Amino acid sequence: MKRHKGKILIVEDEKSMREILKILLEEENYTVSTASEGLEGLASIEKDIFDLVITDMKMPGADGFEVLKKVKEISPETMVIMITAFGTTETAIQAMKLGAYDYIHKPFNIEEIRLIVKKAIEKKRLSEELSLLRQKVETAYSLENIIGKSPGMQELFKLIPRIAQSNSNVLITGESGSGKELFANALHTLSGRKDKNLVAINCAAFPEGLLESELFGYMKGSFTGASSNKQGLFEIADTGSIFLDEIGEMPLNLQVKLLRVLENGTFRRLGGTTDIRVDVRIISATNKELKEEISAGRFREDLYYRLNVVPIHIPPLRERQEDIPLLVDHFLAKIPSQAKIITPAAMKLLVQYAWKGNVRELENVLQRISLLVDNSEITPHDLPPEITETGEDLAGQVLITAGGIDVDEIIGNIEKRYILQALDKAHGVKTEAAKLLRLSFRSFRHRLQKYGIK
After folding, report:
1. Fewest beta carbons within 10 Å, which of 77, 199, 243, 341?
2. Over the stretch 140-166, which tens digit does the pLDDT of each residue have?
3. Which of these CATH numbers, 1.10.10.10, 1.20.120.140, 3.10.20.880, 1.10.10.60, describes 395-454?
4. Considering the entire predicted model, what is its pTM?
C-alpha cells in the first residue's frame, strides 16, 4: 500500500467543486479532508495540522482571507492555495501578501490544479528538509568519516552495513565523546531510509515538559505559550529515522509514551484528541548502564528490550590506542590553519594518555594546540600539562650526556610549557595568564612572541 503524499484540507461551500477536488487529489494519493464552509474549515485547522489548505474566497461564516490568516497564525508551515470565481488583481495581491502560496481563478484546468498542488507540497517538504540540514552542518554521515583500524572498530565497520539494512531498533552504548552520533548517522545513511529525514534530539538537553512537546508536538492552547499547532519530531521523521541521544535521561512518564510509539506506531500531540500513526526507525544511545537504571527504578525494563533489539557498543579510545595516530592526522588535516607535524615524542604521549573524554577530547586538544602554537611542529612541550604529566620536574628528566646539553633550550621549553598552562587556566585571557605567572603584561607578551605562541 502506498503511503500518502501529504494531508490536504479543502474548504469550499460549493458541493460539486468540493467533491471534484477531493476525488482528483485522492487519486494522486493525498489524504484529503473537506469543510463545507469557512467556520467548519477554521475548526478543522484548529484540530489538525495539514500540509496544504485549498480554500474558496467567498463562503458563508468565514471567507477565504480569514481561513488564510488562521492557517498562518497556528500552522505557519502549511501551504495555502486560494480559489475564486470573483477575483481581482487587488485580491490576488492581498492574498499573496498574507502568505498564500498561489491564487487560482475558476474555472481552472484539472492539470493546472494538480501541478500547483504538487509544487506546493514539494515546497513544504523542501522547507522541512532545509531546516533539518541546518542542524546537521559539520556532521559526518558515513563510515568513511569514522576513523579506526583497531579490531573493535573493524568489527563495527563490518556490522553497521548489515544492521542498517534492517528496520530493527538499535541501542548504541559507549562513553561520552566516543562517537555515538556518528554511528547513528552511518546507520541511517546506509539504510533504505537514507532519502528520508534523520531527526536527532538529546534527551538530557530539555526539561521534561519541553521534551514531550519536542517529540510529539502540541496543539494551540495546550499550555501557556502554545500559540500555534506544532508538529513533533516523530511526525517530521515519519518514514525516516529518529536518534534519541542520552535516552537514559528520559523521565519515566515520558518513557511510557515512547513505549506506545514502539508498540503500535501511534501517539497524540499535547492537547490533541486523535492518534497519529508514524513509521519511524528509532536509534537510541546512552553512556549509562541501563540495566543498573532498571534496577534503580529509573528506566522501564519493557522499554529497554524494545530499544535494545540490536545493541552496538563503541569501545573507549583508551582501549583502541592504535586508532589515536589515525585520529590525530585526521583532526589536524581538518583544522584550517598552518599545516602541523607532530613529533614522535608528542605522539607517544597522546597514545599513552587515558582520554576520559574520548575522541571529542582528543579533537578539542588538537584544536587548542593549533590555535595557540605558531610552530609547524608539535612537540611534547606544546601539549597540555595533564598529558605531559604535570607535577614532575622536567629538568630532572634530562641527563647530561658526554656531548653536553643546551640548558637555554631546556629552560625555554620549561618556560613555554608554563606559559601554555597559564593560558589554558586563564581561558586565553593574556592579562590573567600573566598574573598567574607573576609577570608584567609587557614581559609576558615578549615571551609569547619569543616562543611563537598566539
Report:
1. 341
2. 334 667 888 888 898 999 899 999 999
3. 1.10.10.60
4. 0.62
